[in-house]
Amino acid sequence: MVDFSQIKELYKKSLYSSEDKTPAYISTVNALLIFTCVYLLYRTVFPSLSTNKEHIKAKEFAASKAEPVVHTVYTPKTLAPFNGTDHPRVLMGVKRKVYDVSAGRSFYGPGGPYSNFAGRDASRGLAKGSFDEDMLTDINLPIDTLEGLTKEEINALNDWESHFAGKYLLCGELVEND
Amino acid sequence: MSLSDLPPLTLGLAGLTTALIAVRWFSHKYPDIHPVALYHQSSISPVRQPDESAVHRSVVTPFTYPLITGLDIRDGETYRDGDVRDVWTLAKKGDVTVIDASGKTIMQYDELETKLAPLAAALASYSPQSLSKVALYLPNSLANFLLSFACATYGIATVLLPLLSDMSDLSKHLEATQPEIFVYVVGTVDFTKLILPASVSAVVLVPANFTLSSTNSTDKDVTEWTQQLKKSLGTVQVHTFFEMLESTAVPPIVESDKLKFTRMPVFVVSYATSQGNIETRSFHHRHLVSAVAAQMRAIPQHEKLQASDVVVPLDSWHELYNRIMLLTAMASGSHIAICGTSGGGGYDLDLLKRVDPTVIIASVRTVKQICELKSSLFTSFKLMRAYGFQAQGNLSTPIIKSYPHLRIIYTHENQPPSLDKSAAPTSAETSLTSRDLIHVRAMLGARVVYALTHPKIAGALCQTHLLDYRDLGNVRLFGPVLPCLEAMVRDIETLKGGNRQGGLFVRGPAATGPDWIDTGIVGEWGEDGCFREL
Fold first, then answer.
1. What is the mean pLDDT of residues A7-24?
2. Is B498 an interface residue toward A (CB < 8 Å)?
3. By CB neighbour count within 10 A (0-12 exposed, 13-18 middle, 19+ buried), where does A161 fall?
4. Quick one: A160 and A99 in the same domain?
5. B18 to chain A, minimum CA–CA distance in Å?
6. Residue A23: domain span
7. For a FRET experiment, which of A34, B118, B185, B430 has its CA 20 to 30 Å from that of B257?
8. B13 — contact with chain A (CB < 8 Å)?
9. pLDDT digits (tens, 9 = 90+) for B369-385
10. Same domain, yes or no, for A86 and A168?
11. Would you call B304 exposed, middle or buried from its count of C-beta atoms within 10 A (0-12, 13-18, 19+)?
12. pTM for this model (two decimals)
C-alpha cells in the first residue's frame, strides 16, 4: 500500500531543500524566487517597450469608427431604394438636398408615421404639413418645382429645412433623372 | 510548515520579491495622457466628397464650432481678435533678456516700447513716398526684435529675408519683395555682389552686438562702413541704427479702425518654389493672431506656456513659424531670452546652457546638435530605459543634464530658402521621424512639438500632441491640424482621398486665402487623426 503522506512529506522537502549531494540552497522554490526577483528588477529598471493593452484597445476602437459618408448626387430613381427596407439607410430629399435620417428611423423608417417620405422628395409634403402619398411626385417624373405653394407653406418648408440641417446629416443633392 | 521552518535563503528571496512588487506598485505612474485620447486626435467630418478624405479639424474646434480667429481681447463689453500690438501688451508680464559672451541684459517691455516710435518715425522719413516694406536681413537680436515690432505697431510691413550667404540668391529675394528700406548687420553683406532693387531708397546698418547702451561713437565698424557705403551706393541713403533710435521725426499715423488694422500686412515672406522661382506671401495681423491663439489652445492647459517660462528662440526669425512661436511666448507672458541664431555658421551651445531654458524653439538641425552625446554602453542602457518609460506613456529624467529645466521643444519641418538645390540638405537632416522624436525626448527629458509648416500658412499646419510619445517607426508624424485650420487630402495620382491618402489642402483664418490652399504636401491621415507625410 502506497503511503501518500510520506510522498507528500518528501515532495515538500524537495521543494525547500535538497537531500542530494547538491548544496542545500538549490531548490525549486529558490530558483523560482530568484527568477522572479531578477525579472522584477529588470522591469523596474527597464520598463517594457511593447505596446500595452490600453493602447491596443484604443487603437482597435479607433479603427472600428464608422467611415464618413460620401456626398452623393442622387436622382429620384437612385434615391428611392433608401427607404429603410430595400436599403438599411433612410434618406430623404428636402429642397434638392438629401439628408440621412437613419437616426430618426422610428419616424421616417418602415412603420413610422412619416415612412412615406423615406427615399423620396418630401418638400411639398413638408410645406403643406401632409404625409399623404399624393404629396409625393412619381420617381420617373421631373422633380417637383414646388409651384403653387403659398408664402406660409414656403416658410414652413424653410423651417423644416433648418430642422433637418440641424439634426441630420446632409449627405447629397437631388438632381433630375438622366 | 510555517515561515520559521523555511530556509533563510528562501525567506530572504521571498522578502525581496515582495519588496520589489511593493516598489513597482507604489512607483507606478499613470501615463501622461490616456491612450484613447491619442487615437482620437482629430474631429472628423461625417461626410466627405467623392475624391477627398473627410475634413479634419482639431478636437478643440470640432464641427459646428468656429475655428479660432484671434486672442479674444476684451474691449469694453465685447471681445475682439486683437493684433500684434495686443501681443506686446500681453507680453508685459515677462521681459526680454539678451545674452551674449559678455553677459546678460534684462529689459522690460515698457523700456523697449519707448524705442518703437522713433524707429518707425525714422523709417518713414527715409522713404520719399509712403513706406510700405522694410526688409530685415538680421539674425535674432534686439535690433531685429525692436524693428519688427516698430513696423507692426505703425502699419509697416516687414520683409523677412532668409539669412543666405549667397548674394545672388539674396538679390532674387529682394527683387521679388521690392522693399523700400534694407536693414542688415554691418559686414554681413557684400555690396559688390548684391543687387539692390530700384525700390530700395535707404539702407540701415546695425552693429553686430547692439544693446540699448551702445552708441554710434563707440562703434567704429558702423562709422567706417557708413562712410564707404555712402560713396558706393549713389542715391541710396545710408543710415545707422543709432540714428534711428535718436530720431525726432513724427511717427506714421496708425489706422484707428481696429478691424481695418487687423487686415494690414505685418510680415512678407519670400520662398523658393519647386520650379525655382521666388514667390512672396503677405501675412496680416489677423493671420498671426489666429495662429498665436491656436498655439495657445493646442497644448494641454497644465502644460501651457507661463510667466515662469524662459523661452529661447534659437532658430532664425526669418521663418514665420519661429516668429509665431515667439509671439505665442510673448502672449503667454513668458520671459524671452535672445542668445543668437542657430543654423548657417554654427551655434554656441555653451551660451544656451547658461540661459537654462524651459522652452526652446529650434530647427531640426539644432535639436539634433543639442542631442549629440558620445555613445557608450551606459548611454545605451539609459536610452533603453528612457524608451521603455515613453512606451508606458511617461517621460524619464534626461540623459543630457545640461538643460535641467527644459520642458518643451518646439521644432518644425522646413525647406531651406536657397535656390541652389544641390546645396540643400537631405531630408534626414531637416526632418524627424517618430523614432527620432522618441530619441530627442529621451536625451533631453523634454516634450517635443514637431510641426509641419507651409509658406502660405501662418505658423504650423499640423503639429504633434505634446504628450504623444508613441513609437510609430520611421514615419514623419505631424499630429492633428491646429484649431485655426481645417484640412483634408484630395486624390493625387494613385493615392485616393477615400483611403485618407493624397495631397493636403488647408483652409482657415491662419491661411492666406479664402479657399482651400493646395500645400503640395503628400500624405495620409491615420486612424488616430494624425497626419503622416508620405
1. 59
2. yes
3. middle
4. yes
5. 9
6. 4-49
7. B118
8. yes
9. 888 877 788 889 999 99
10. yes
11. middle
12. 0.90
